[in-house]
Amino acid sequence: METDNDKLALISGRSNLPLAREICESVDTRMCSRELTNFSDGEIFVKIQENVRGSDVFIIQSTSTNVNDHLMELLIMIDAIKRASAKRITAVMPYFGYGRQDRKVESRTPITAKLVADLITASGADRVLTMDLHAGQIQGFFNLPVDHLYASPILTEYIKGKSYKSLTIFSPDSGGVERARAFAKALGVGLGIIDKRREEKNVAKAMNIIGEVSGRDVMIVDDMVDTAGTLTESVNALLNAGANSVSACCTHAVLSGPAIERINNSSLKELITCNTIKLNSEAMNCGKISVLSVARLLGKAIMRIHAESSVSSLFEY
To answer: What is the sign, positive or negative, of the torsion defined by CA atoms of 111, 76, 303, 52?
Structure first.
């Protein structure tokens, strides 16, 4: 007879169904059936179409574009599953939206990342599984366990396979130095920093370059690429400083607004990213974008959490 501890249920919202299906395949588990629809006024309706009483439920949902719809959908799914008497609910958020609003940057502004953490907690989640938060301190916004995974092993393995002869890892700003240093150490290459000044939201101007650039292949490392303004400014600055080629890698390809147009029109050689966010058709057809899957890594974490075994070996930076 199946016990409560054996009852694993994986269920997905609508933000990234392809990744959810890959995760289910990686752990050899079918996806739990659910109904997700919108009323004519936009309100979201959720119905769980299977018995999840006493189950260990994992809800897979990135709060990516459309951020507010996908966040609300996640909260409603958590509430529905809680009221269906699930034993434990884990919100699997490969991409944590609102993560950039993690502090007050000026007076009379919110800390929205904390608000989102409170909403997820209040809705009834028991723990959160996420990947490459914009700032690691966001884990502290939750009053529940947070498992924070990194895509760096997947990205660095791909970069190793490219066989660069003279590679230097660059951080696009001072805030990403720790991340870039970890990549440089894993690859055994040099490290550089681009000192930039952000003049307004989604607008950045690259300033000074610190590190060896001339005649070298450069890899810019960041957690996400949104409008690609920072990225293309950095590409231009590095090429003007004598870089042989400039590529970039990130975990989350938000790619909003003019991002694809900017990437296509830039001298960027390649953008390596992961499937934490479902890319639209324009991005998928962009020849400069390479997408790696994080499904197996998330699948391993899900199975270890379900089995109450250690997840620490997966927390490699």
So the answer is: positive
